[in-house]
Amino acid sequence: MATTPPSTAAGRAAFADATASDAALRRFLHGLPGVDAVGLEARAAALGTRSIKTTAKAYALDLAISMIDLTTLEGADTAGKVRALGTKAVHPDPTDPETPKVAAVCVYPDMVATAKQAVAGSGVKVASVATAFPAGRAALEVKLADVRDAVAAGADEIDMVIDRGAFLSGRYRKVYEEIAAVKQASGAARLKVIFETGELSTYDNIRRASWLGMLAGADFIKTSTGKVAVNATPANTLLMLQAVRDFRAQTGVQVGVKPAGGIRTAKDAVKFLVLVNETAGGDWLDNHWFRFGASSLLNDLLMQRQKLSTGRYSGPDYVTVD
Questions:
Q1: What separation in angstroms does the CA of 19 have from each of 7, 9, 122, 211, 297?
Q2: Burial class (CB in 10 A: 0-12, 13-18, 19+), 169
C-alpha cells in the first residue's frame, strides 16, 4: 500500500474505514449525494455570464497564463518541438518581459529530459503523462515503469489516467490501489489523476471518481486527456471544484483541479477562473492548485493581453504556431 506525505496522511486517515475493502469503498462512493444535473449546469451557466473588466481582466489574463500546462502530446513530437515549447513556456511573449511564465510543460516520458533542459532555472515545471496514456490499457507494472522512467528523467509532476473500464464496472478498489501505487512510484513528483470525464457518462460518476482519486492520494484531479470528444466543461469542472472544497472541509487536505481539453479562448479561461473563485474560493486561485491543460489557449491569452494594453489586436504573426 502506498503511503501519503505526513501532512496529508492524517486527513485521509479519517476515511480509512471507507477504503478498507471493495465493499466499503462501494458503499461510501454510492452513498455520496446524487448530483442535480439541471442545477449543476444552471449554476455553471450563470457563473459564466459574470463580466470581468479592465484591471480585473488584466489580472485574470495574467493569472490564466501562469496556470497553463503548455502541452504537446503527439506521436510526431521531436526534441526540437519540445525545446521550442520550453522556450515559449519561459518567455510566452518575447517582446514583453512582464508576461508571466506558464506553470509547466507537459510531455511524454521520453521527452522529459529535453523539456527539463529547455526550462532549466526558470521555475517552470515539467509534467509528464504516464500509465499508458491516454487509454490506460496496460498492466500495472508497465504503468509503474512508465512513471518511474518519467521521474528518473526529472519530471516534477505526473499525469496518470485511471482504468475507466475498472471504474465503470464497479471495481473501485482496483482503481484506488492503482492510484495509490502510482502515487508511491511518483516519489516527490505531484500526481494529477485524469478521469476522462467524457467517458464516465454521468455526473454521479464524476463525483465518485473525484472522491476516489482524492482518497487514494491525488494531488490534483483532472478532467480529461484531451483525446476524446468531450473534455473539460464548465459543469464537470464545477462539480470537481465542489468535490475538492468539500474534501478539504472534511479532511483539511487541499487538492488541485485541472480542466483539460477544449479550453481555447481567453474568454473561456476567465469563465473557469470565476468558477474557481465562486466555488472553491481564493485559495485555489494559484497555479499550485489550479491548472489549464491547453496548447492553443496561450496564444489567445497573449493576443487579448496585448489588446488590453495597446487597444488593438496584433497581426497573425504575433504569436507562434505550436
A1: 19, 13, 40, 11, 38
A2: exposed
Q: Which member of 219, 258, 268, 271 is catalytic?
A: 258
The continuous run of DSSP H or E covering 206 comes out as: helix 203-215
Local structure of residue 191 (DSSP, 8 states): E
Catalytic residue selected from 146, 156, 159, 268 = 159
Given a contact cutoff of 8 angstroms between Cβ atoms, the answer to whether 294 and 263 are in contact is yes
Q: Which residues of 17-44 are buried (b: 16+ CB within 10 A; e: fewer)?
A: ebbeeeebbbebbeeeeebeeeebbebb
Q: Which residues lie below 8 Å from residue 128, measured CB to CB, with a gap of 6+?
A: 106, 107, 108, 109, 111, 112, 150, 153, 155, 157, 158, 159
Catalytic residue among 125, 183, 222, 271: 222
Say which DSSP state 295 is in.
S
Q: Hey, is 277 helix, strand or coil?
A: helix
CA nearest 180: which of 160, 200, 208, 205?
160
Q: Say whether 222 is catalytic.
A: yes
The answer to whether the CB of 295 falls within 8 A of the CB of 102 is no
Q: Residue 159 belongs to what H/E stretch?
A: strand 157-161
Burial class (CB in 10 A: 0-12, 13-18, 19+), 315: exposed
Residues of the chain under the 70 pLDDT cut:
1-9, 312-322
pLDDT per residue as tens digits for the range 103-143:
999 999 999 999 999 999 999 999 999 999 999 999 999 99
Crossing angle, helix 266-279 and helix 234-251, to 10 degrees? 30
Half-sphere exposure of 29 (CA within 13 A, CB side): 30
Whether 159 is catalytic is yes
Q: Count CA atoms within 13 Å of residue 184 on its CB side.
A: 12
